[in-house]
Amino acid sequence: MNETPLMREIRMAAPAHVRLLRNNVGAFEWAPGKWLRYGLCVGSSDLIGWTQQDGKAIFTAVETKGKRGRLTQDQENFLYQVEAAGGIAIVAKTVEEALRGLCR
Q1: Residue 55 structural domain
Q2: Which of 47, 49, 89, 93 is deepest in the core (most CB within 10 A)?
Q3: 21-27 LR contacts (CB < 8 Å, sep 24+)
Q4: Is residue 99 packed enough to be buried (19+ CB in 10 Å), middle (13-18) or exposed (0-12)?
Q5: In the prediction, which pLDDT does 104 show?
Q6: Where would I find the H helices in the chain?
Q7: What is the CATH classification number for the domain harbouring 47?
Q8: DSSP alpha helix (H) spans, 3-72
């Protein structure tokens, strides 16, 4: 499955205690030599948000990949940092993989 429909399906299937938002990251040149950068940061996950646990919001990041997709070094680092800080970090090639990570 392509990443865009996968992201949509994961967002729709997420349990009620999970809120995921699309995080587009990139840049475009709006005038010669003038770039506008957008998104959380380079390497940040496709879907970011929170998981409600015990009345608290736990930062949640889901990186979606197609069947042959691989993580970049920046993506690996972002996911590592999320987990190291106590957040939830998931790599998902299917909706089922995402749900397993969100419901653990």
Answers
A1: 3-102
A2: 47
A3: 21/47, 21/48, 21/49, 22/46, 22/47, 23/47, 23/48
A4: middle
A5: 77
A6: 3-13, 73-84, 95-102
A7: 3.40.1350.10
A8: 3-13
Q: Which residue has the tokens 């996950």?
A: 45
Residue 32's CB: how many other CB atoms inside 10 A? 5
Helix (H) or strand (E) holding 29: strand 26-31
Asked whether 23 and 44 are in contact (CB, 8 A), the reply is: yes
Instruction: Give how many domains the chain has, as a whole number.
Output: 1
To 5 degrees, how large is the angle CA 69–CA 15–CA 3?
Answer: 20
Give the tens place of pLDDT for each residue, 17-56: 999 999 999 999 999 999 999 999 999 999 999 999 999 9
